[in-house]
Amino acid sequence: MVKRRTEGKRVTRKLHEVQTEMWRRMHTPVQAQHRWLSSVLRGHDAYYGLPSNWPRLGSFHQAITRRWYRVLRRRSQRRLTWERFNALLARFPLPPARITHSREVSLASVG
After folding, report:
1. What is the pLDDT of residues 12-23, one digit of tens each?
2. In this structure, are residues 34 and 85 in contact, taking their beta carbons and an 8 Å threshold?
3. Which residue, 89, 80, 93, 74, is CA-closest to 25?
4. Taken in order 75, 42, 1, 13, is the CA torsion positive or negative?
5. Does 51 have pLDDT greater than 50?
6. Each residue of 72-83: pLDDT tens digit?
7. Domain locations in the chain?
8. Average pLDDT in the 10-35 region?
9. For residues 46 and 98, what is the distance between their CA atoms, to the nearest angstrom?
10. Rounded to an integer, what distance in angstroms lies between the CA atom of residue 44 and that of residue 30?
């Protein structure tokens, strides 16, 4: 069985694009940021959600969470702590990493 994983360059490029957009949306309300980030994560999972790609999905979600923390931390002079950010995540939870494709196609069944 061929196990497919997201290419590292694609992940890096997407994280850079999302981070740039986060900086652009820095001062929009947190609820709007949460709605947009949730759609980004759901879309990423819908495309890359293969069973063999589970570790890369988790690391992508974790990287997005860290980047959101950094952007929110820069919004004001009252520093955001991880405790306050975790309380914010409790109120606005990001969707967890999800496998959206049930199985992978093996080379034996294709050819």
Report:
1. 999 999 999 999
2. no
3. 74
4. negative
5. yes
6. 999 988 889 999
7. 8-95
8. 96
9. 8
10. 21
With vertex at residue 98, the alpha carbon angle to CA 64 and CA 35, rounded to the nearest 5 degrees, is 50
> Which two tokens mark 59?
């690391």
pLDDT at position 48 = 86
Q: Would the pTM of this model clear 0.90, i.e. be above it?
A: no
Transcribe the chain into DSSP letters.
-PPP---HHHHHHHHHHHHHHHHHTTTS-HHHHHHHHHHHHHHHHHHH--GGGHHHHHHHHHHHHHHHHHHHHTSSSSPPPHHHHHHHHHHSPPPPP---S-----HHHH-
Cα 49–chain centre separation: 12
Biggest CA–CA distance in the chain, Å, is 60
Q: Please name the residues in contact with 50: beta carbons below 8 A apart, sequence gap of 6 or more.
A: 4, 5, 99, 101, 104
| Over residues 63-87, mean pLDDT | 94
